[in-house]
């Protein structure tokens, strides 16, 4: 084995992974465009303050998972751990508030979190996400959930369970936090170290603990839904009514709080049936205070992110995905110095005619090149030697059907291939 390997928790995307990975990405982009969302790409690195301001200093992302470093100019930078804060920074920086609202955006790219690697969870992870910025209505929440739901439906993941909740606004959560702290404090000694820390710094995140999910104190904890202000209740009621009208199945789960400080009101997660929180495929929520945290005016927003690796894992478990990629139409076989040059010219002409062409490997015997062409699944071999180059012809050899090899003029090769199916 080589001494140098990919860093722990990071992996290579190999050619065998390409069909399924591209299928997920292309499906996600197609669904987003159907809702009139437009592509945005932000840098892989951001000012660390973008995440420290928005995610909250006690969030796992900021406290334990961010890759942070000083560049040569002394700026404190971070590899982006999530997409929403960077998109909102770009919204502010580029004056998108002057555009017709809401601004609908989608992104797809790599993100970085120093987390314990496990199935479907990596330190470099790929996510697809959408952001709807500038619309505070329940309809925007529902549109975003519907887009995510349709994405999974289009991929064949029709059994994912949707769980929704409302965590109210900062004002409504203040009352709930006091009650929850009073409920949990007598049980502090039996909670995990992370939950004990969160009990003192941000008690709401104890509800999001995967380690303590079955703890009796959490099971019996008061529901945040009982503490919502009337406006929050009305917002959530309208979200649920619209999901009902669309026929999107869901369960209300007051334990969902999401992991970042900027969430407010509607939050949700999609996960496989009978799975724990570690198996969440994607989730999202409303973040009406985020742009204010970044120094902008009050601007409502809602969005979701879904892990590409998590989707791929679920597709493989169910045997879903695209058919194998199409084999090349043609494999070039070059023999001799003049044949090598002529094969390059013929290959270019065939590609210009819309055919997929696998290039020749000069210097190998014809038998070896034919064996390689057959292994690649090419339908035809186009053989060009010195004699063919001199006469302006090629030898067209079918590889997938029983048929005779034919001599074809260089200018007629594409048509000859099409006529033979």
List the main descriptive attributes of the protein structure presented here.
421 residues, BirA Bifunctional Protein, domain 2, Rossmann fold, 8-stranded mixed beta sheet, 15 helices, 16 strands, 19% strand
Q: Can you walk through the features of this model?
A:
This protein is of the alpha+beta class and 421 residues long. The chain has 2 domains: 15-169 and 229-317, BirA Bifunctional Protein, domain 2 (2-Layer Sandwich); 330-419, Anticodon-binding domain (Rossmann fold, 3-Layer(aba) Sandwich), CATH 3.40.50. 37% of the residues lie in helices and 19% in strands. The protein has helices at residues 18-34, 48-55, 60-65, 84-93, 138-155, 170-184, 193-201, 216-219, 230-246, 290-293, 308-317, 337-352, 366-375, 386-391, 413-419; strands spanning 38-39, 45-47, 68-70, 76-79, 103-112, 124-133, 161-166, 251-252, 264-271, 282-286, 301-307, 330-334, 357-358, 380-384, 393-398, 406-409. It has an 8-stranded mixed sheet with strand order 1-5-6-11-10-9-7-8, with helices on both faces. It has a 5-stranded mixed sheet with strand order 13-12-14-15-16, sandwiched between helices. Strands 2-4-3 form a 3-stranded antiparallel sheet. The protein starts with 17 loop residues before the first helix and ends with a helix.
């Amino acid at each position: 084995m080589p001494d140098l390997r990919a860093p722990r928790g990071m992996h290579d995307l190999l050619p065998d992974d390409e069909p399924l990975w591209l299928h997920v990405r292309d499906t996600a982009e197609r669904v987003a465009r159907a809702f009139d969302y437009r592509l945005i790409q932000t840098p892989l690195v951001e000012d660390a303050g973008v995440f420290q301001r928005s995610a909250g200093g006690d969030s796992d992302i900021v406290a334990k998972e961010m890759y942070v470093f000083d560049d040569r100019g002394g700026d404190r930078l971070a590899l982006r751990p999530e997409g929403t804060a960077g998109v909102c920074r770009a919204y502010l920086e580029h004056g998108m508030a002057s555009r017709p609202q809401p601004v609908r955006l989608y992104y797809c790219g790599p993100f970085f979190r120093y987390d314990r690697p496990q199935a479907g969870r990596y330190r470099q992870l790929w996510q697809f996400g959408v952001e709807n910025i500038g619309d505070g209505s329940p309809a925007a929440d529902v549109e975003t959930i519907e887009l995510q739901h349709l994405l999974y439906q289009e991929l064949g993941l029709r059994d994912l369970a949707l769980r929704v909740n409302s965590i109210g606004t900062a004002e409504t959560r203040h009352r709930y936090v006091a009650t929850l702290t009073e409920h949990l404090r007598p049980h502090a000694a039996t909670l995990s170290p992370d939950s004990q820390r969160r009990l003192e710094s941000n008690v709401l995140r104890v509800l999001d603990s995967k380690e303590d999910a079955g703890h009796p104190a959490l099971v019996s904890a008061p529901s945040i839904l009982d503490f919502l202000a009337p406006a929050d209740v009305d917002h959530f009621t309208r979200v649920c009514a619209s999901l009902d009208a669309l026929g999107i199945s869901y369960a209300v789960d007051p334990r969902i709080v999401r992991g970042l400080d900027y969430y407010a009101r509607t939050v949700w997660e999609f996960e496989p049936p009978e799975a724990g929180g570690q198996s969440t495929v994607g989730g999202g929520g409303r973040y009406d205070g985020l742009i204010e945290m970044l120094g902008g005016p009050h601007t409502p927003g809602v969005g979701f992110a879904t892990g590409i690796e998590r989707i791929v894992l679920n597709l493989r478990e169910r045997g879903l995905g695209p058919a194998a990629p199409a084999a090349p139409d043609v494999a070039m076989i070059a023999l001799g110095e003049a044949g090598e040059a002529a094969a390059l010219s013929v290959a270019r002409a065939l590609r210009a005619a819309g055919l997929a062409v696998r290039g020749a490997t000069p210097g190998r015997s014809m038998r070896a090149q034919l064996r390689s062409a057959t292994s690649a699944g090419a339908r035809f071999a186009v053989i060009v030697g010195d004699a063919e180059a001199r006469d302006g012809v090629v030898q067209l050899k079918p590889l997938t059907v029983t048929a005779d090899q034919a001599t074809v003029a260089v200018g007629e090769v594409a048509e000859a291939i099409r006529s033979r199916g």
